[in-house]
Design a protein that fits this description.
It is a single chain. The protein is of the alpha/beta class and 281 residues long. The chain has one domain: Rossmann fold. The protein contains 13 helices and ten strands. The strands form two sheets. The protein has a six-stranded mixed beta sheet, with helices on both faces. Helix 8 runs parallel beside helix 9. It starts with a helix and ends with a helix. It binds adenosine-5'-diphosphate (ADP) and magnesium ion. The site of magnesium ion (MG) has 3 residues, from helix 3.
């Protein structure tokens, strides 16, 4: 693939003017509260408890916390994809509480999610090529900027992968396909929810490096959800530490990880994979 095609992404973006917006942030969450109701018992569980965060255009923001701390609930509610919550959310300049369905549908391609389980995200009955074709049919203009083989090249996959079915892909290959599908939509925000947790350790670093490279080359913002500090450290500038639904500490990664102020943060850091970072510095 030629360099001209690679660098064609920003130019392509210029041909698709974005929504005019006073605040250029891609996501502003203010006082978000999300409750899950247990269907059988009717019990209500507060998964996200008054969380606020902001992701500027092109920024890379992490949410870390132990399993069950509310990270996925936060990410899904904040992007209008999961259980709705109370509080204010501005996604790509639109208030999610007042946006109409048609408008929300138009925003969808601009927010792409990469999940933990790549095989679970792909349709087992579709080859990679037919999966991409389906996306192209849904969004013909948005997706016309790159050919299938070049798209795969962007995620370091050989063109032969196009004819494979998900069960014929390794975890790392399947996650690259998921990233390629996200990239095809030229998103302004990529949400990566534990994108390497389901992968062999040997390919985790490569997939992270790829996410980082794509963020840089496309200018997309990244919301990285992880329980692994090594992951966050390698990709993100800012981090929010979640504990039991609340953000207990926020700041630049190098500040929060090296000199955590909150007791919970210290405990979480000590218990998390990747916490060795502190002693290395
Ligand atoms: N659909 C749901 N119904 C009921 N409880 C849920 C639902 N989804 C998540 N939860 C609960 O909300 C809490 C936060 O979950 P989640 O956001 O998935 O956390 P994390 O991503 O940090 O592991 C957990 O206690 C989980 O059991
Ligand atoms: Mg989760």
């Amino acid at each position: 693939m030629t360099e001209a095609v690679r660098t064609g992404v920003p130019g392509d973006r210029a041909r698709h003017p974005r929504t005019p917006d006073a605040d250029p942030a891609v996501l502003v969450v203010d006082g978000l509260v999300v409750d899950h109701r247990n269907r059988s018992t009717g019990e209500v569980f507060r998964a996200v408890d008054h969380v606020s965060l902001r992701i500027g255009a092109g920024e890379s923001v992490a949410v870390v916390g132990e399993s069950g701390s509310g990270k996925t609930t936060l990410a899904m509610a904040a992007t209008g994809l999961g259980t709705r919550g109370a509080g204010s959310i501005r996604l790509l300049g639109h208030s999610l509480s007042s946006i109409g369905r048609a408008q929300l549908r138009r925003l969808r391609p601009e927010v792409q999610v990469v999940f933990q389980d790549p095989h679970g995200s792909l349709d087992p009955r579709q080859s990679v090529r037919s999966g991409l074709r389906e996306l192209r049919t849904l969004q013909p203009q948005r997706t016309s900027w790159i050919r299938d083989a070049d798209l795969l090249d962007r995620v370091r996959l050989a063109p032969q992968i196009l004819d494979r079915y998900p069960h014929q892909l390794s975890g790392g290959q399947a996650q690259r396909v998921c990233i390629a599908r996200a990239l095809l939509m030229r998103p302004r925000l990529i949400v990566a929810d534990e994108p390497t947790s389901g992968l062999d350790v040997s390919v985790q670093a490569d997939v992270l490096a790829l996410l980082k490279e794509i963020r840089t080359s496309t200018g997309a913002a990244l919301l990285m959800i992880s329980h692994d500090l090594a992951v966050v450290r390698s990709v993100c500038d800012t981090v929010h530490v979640m504990y039991r639904g609340r953000v207990v500490e926020s700041g630049r990664c190098e500040t929060v990880f090296v000199t955590p102020e909150n007791d919970y943060t210290r405990e979480l850091l000590a218990a998390m994979p990747g916490a060795r970072w502190r002693s290395r510095r």
